[in-house]
Fold these 2 entries.
Entry 1:
Amino acid sequence: MATGRNHRPATRSRGIPEATVARLPLYLRALTALSERSVPTVSSEELASAAGVNSAKLRKDFSYLGSYGTRGVGYDVEYLVYQISRELGLTQDWPVVIVGIGNLGAALANYGGFASRGFRVAALIDADHAMTGAQVAGLPVQHVDDLETIIRTNGVSIGVITTPGSAAQQVCDRLVGAGITSILNFAPTVLSVPDGVDVRKVDLSIELQILAFHEQRKATDELARNGGPGPSGAPPDDQGPEGDIPAVMPA
Amino acid sequence: MATGRNHRPATRSRGIPEATVARLPLYLRALTALSERSVPTVSSEELASAAGVNSAKLRKDFSYLGSYGTRGVGYDVEYLVYQISRELGLTQDWPVVIVGIGNLGAALANYGGFASRGFRVAALIDADHAMTGAQVAGLPVQHVDDLETIIRTNGVSIGVITTPGSAAQQVCDRLVGAGITSILNFAPTVLSVPDGVDVRKVDLSIELQILAFHEQRKATDELARNGGPGPSGAPPDDQGPEGDIPAVMPA
DNA sequence: ATGCCTTTGTGAACGCGTGCACAAAGACGG
DNA sequence: CCGTCTTTGTGCACGCGTTCACAAAGGCAT
């Protein structure tokens, strides 16, 4: 029991909740920092604080991986780094292609975070003939005509799309056709992919709009607080912003 | 202090669920495309398909905004564009500062998606004196020494951090000190901010690691299906973590 | 060896988000 | 003006994720 190695949750591969998977890289980063400082063990409280999460959540997350902690002591940093790395598949090499070598694509190619954990930029691809052969981040830009060959030759299964939105779906289709099964999409487009292909999107515009929403809310809250009690009989400042009726009702 | 205790009830924002807010920009984008094609009305089914979500979800989302549809007909595109824009606060101008003008910062400065919806890059800031005065995306790079002045002068409330991870928290503290209340963080660091400040993070490394996890799982599933005895109870019903999982989590 | 003290691992409750299914509402043809 | 047909808006149930709270587990001092 102590070795809970093959203690696979009844529902086989589905054992680890998606939300937990999304936090594992966060834990790994914090653990790596501890490892570099030669810290031998860490408690769930300390590690949770470093990762910016709740300690109970962290313990539950780790419980999905197995019992890797020691009660009364905490977790062995090195061991945990290894276990999480293995769970995330970072002990193997993941060649990645970047399609669309504009400003953003070039920035990603130069981004150190890529290479840091088993990810290797295998190729840079662009549709512009004028760019073909140019060196970006020490790699030659190759033409999109050779996309399928490049992917198959290098055994690439992860693709990053940094093209304009108008080209994204077309590129995506070709990537999937060539065997890519995981896509990180920076283009402002909803990609359609067949079952079995994972897509994650990073959308700067959407992030800003979400921030703007909260920013606006903060501004109106502030205004309501300072701008006068108002004869409408609304309580000036009740702790709960609840009961707030939409400011403008359509006629 | 400033131990990021972002305790967000998620339902606090004027009754609009956080998950809905995160989808509004998606709807807005689809609606804008329809508007440009002069499509007068759209059904929840059509719009949902264009935005890549479930139609029931879309209708429920809109129900939080009010009853802007017409039964038997659908939604008026122009009206909905306006309502969502207003709700998201996009009818006003949002000056933004970008701190850290490396490859990524420069890429963002050039990114068209910024200016597209009320967002305006008000200033570029970097700690490197050698960069001060250089033109990036038509704007002069200013030194971080003037950060507070720049922010106050331009009335900026949204900051984008594209510095190395080691500088992120320091920059963050100064931004907050200068009055910034919304931060989009690209640095691979957990930022601590006081209450009242929103932080959203975009972490390329984490996204890749999540993809790698699923990629590894797909590989082992495949292996088990081909290599192992079939009747071990592994039906191919596994549709995978399909769908558009937002790549950015609220901090 | 024993008892105390720390920390893990987890059962259970709760709350949010999602999707179903259907009644209400309105357009439209006759 | 009425019936039919389309589509919205939503009550309800379900499942996932989060959090609390605590018993079990193990180190450590005596």
Note: Chain B has a mean pLDDT of 87.
Entry 2:
Amino acid sequence: MGDGVGTGLDLPLDKVLVGDCIALMRQLPPASVHAIFADPPYNLQLKGDLRRPDDSLVDGVDEAWDRFDDLAAYDAFTHEWLTEARRVLRKDGTIWVIGSYHNIFRLGTALQDLGFWVLNDVIWRKANPMPNFRGRRFTNAHETLIWAARGAESRYRFNYAAMKSLNEEVQMRSDWFIPLCTGAERLRDETGAKLHPTQKPEALLHRVILSCTQPGEVVLDPFLGTGTTAAVARRLGRRYIGLERDPAYAAAAEARIDSVEPLSESAALVTAGKREQKRIPFGHLVERGLVPAGTVLVDRGRRWQAVVAADGSIRCGRAQGSIHQVGALVQEAPSCNGWAFWHVEQPGGRLRVLDEFRVALQGEG
Amino acid sequence: MGDGVGTGLDLPLDKVLVGDCIALMRQLPPASVHAIFADPPYNLQLKGDLRRPDDSLVDGVDEAWDRFDDLAAYDAFTHEWLTEARRVLRKDGTIWVIGSYHNIFRLGTALQDLGFWVLNDVIWRKANPMPNFRGRRFTNAHETLIWAARGAESRYRFNYAAMKSLNEEVQMRSDWFIPLCTGAERLRDETGAKLHPTQKPEALLHRVILSCTQPGEVVLDPFLGTGTTAAVARRLGRRYIGLERDPAYAAAAEARIDSVEPLSESAALVTAGKREQKRIPFGHLVERGLVPAGTVLVDRGRRWQAVVAADGSIRCGRAQGSIHQVGALVQEAPSCNGWAFWHVEQPGGRLRVLDEFRVALQGEG
DNA sequence: AGGACCGTTGAATCGTACG
DNA sequence: ACGTACGATTCAACGGTCC
């Protein structure tokens, strides 16, 4: 175990250690790991239960490890584990933490207060998030990762070319579109229940680990859970150290990791990038002023007209709805493609079909 | 100026006030604005002299300020203006703040510490971000907004239906794809130089203001800059209060706001959700003969049927009660929306859902 | 075989008006 | 203030079944 950096302490490489991550990190030599990925408890503070419109119950996070007395207790915990993480991190290593609005501001503040140097915040845009069932907020469709160097002067690693190649030869942006961990990838027990409430998708860890480490380097995960970080690290030819308090999670992680076949180095560079589909809501044209609120729309024969409202709905007499709904309504047709039906009168009397305004936005990501 | 809430202080509506936003907010009556949008400056120089966001030099010129002091000064400033903002915000009002990874964690932590209740963090995904020229990080392609209520118990406003309409009848997510402010929208001086370094796009403010206010309500921007918030508020038929310390920015903002034409009432009128519509008791439909007593109701699958009584209750076997109670009972569900559950058989065998009968009374006073 | 259809599910801080 | 009853509210992916 070569990486002991002259401390006399050996690194427990490619192992899952069961116990409290703070105590376990204290036993690791300083400046010994190249990268850290940490998915700490989010402190969600859920109250009652939540039902879908069909009355089925949402299986939320209700584990003891996610409960803290208050924000101060959460902050104290955060400072403590981040302090050990910083000690264990090599001088030029980097750390990733992930969270939601419940905890990410506490994490970011703690990182900065401890001297870490934020390099990016990265948005995991979920392809298939849970909707907001009550219609009281925006769909919570992302989580935030913070990527930080040990300090402002760190000469950290960033595999720029690998990230660019992952992204069809344009620079990798700070917003990543990746599906949830579902289907066959999701670990389940015999009854079909999920083994861990918050298992992260391997695609996310693939990108994280590939971005900031080289093969053979050491990735530490202080909150290993069911082992996504370690499994991906192993597949990508990295070494790992996984810390996990719950023996059941740790056991599941070990079994999972054992089943992983390390990739050859060339194969490690390939990723199954899910391409994002393009759909442009009419409302976006309104916001952007391309078809401003107040615009009068007419059909090709100028038989009907409608006024565009600020929310992208249109109104024709008492009827209000989407361009498609109102188009169908006035024609008494079962359906209507509003993009082709409605036109904007141009100076000079020419009509321009809505679809032409949409193509102006087609090029955008 | 009606909204003074009995304080004797008047609200300076539709004005740009020049001065320090903290001092100016102290002169506003408490609980007086419906929404706040804040784009606080992040001018702290991390190398060399330490300056406050208002450009004043922090005392102790000869002192070696380290990173901690930088952050502490920023935190103190943040707490101070957010404290005043919270005082000025109505009980059920909401606040938006925007920032990047340099300051958003400080903002979020301060919001939580002051008792604000985070509703969403929202990602502004930039369509055309500046590339990372050095190739040392991910392209910083987004900024983060935090949307928060004044407190955990606030009954805040969220125009769910309008947001859904803006997004082609799919729930609005927490990641928004909007271009930078460029082209004709970008304010420039005679030489073509940008008037303000971080002018926000109007499309962003359009969505923000539309999501959480009604026409006629008051939007406060403590860091108005060149007036995007006020201009969009005016266009959407909202009132505004803009605070700006730089007289040049304030002057540019005023000129810009003056040139804005408010939308017509019909264009500003946004899709109303069912929650906004008047509540109509089922009994009224019975009284009015729209669904006469004796009518047989069935569910969509014709599994259950019930008979309408003269008092608007319905009976299904031995069960009698409201359309909701009986619907829940027969399904053995915890609750039921009777308007959507029960149907009336039409001549020809078609089923018509109760909700459709309600529409006839919707327009009446 | 393959397309249509249906059931399940995911880190969730998910009411409000009226008496 | 507090209790009660009304009644509003979901998207995409995946896997299994049926025809």
Note: The two ends of chain B are 28 Å apart (CA to CA).
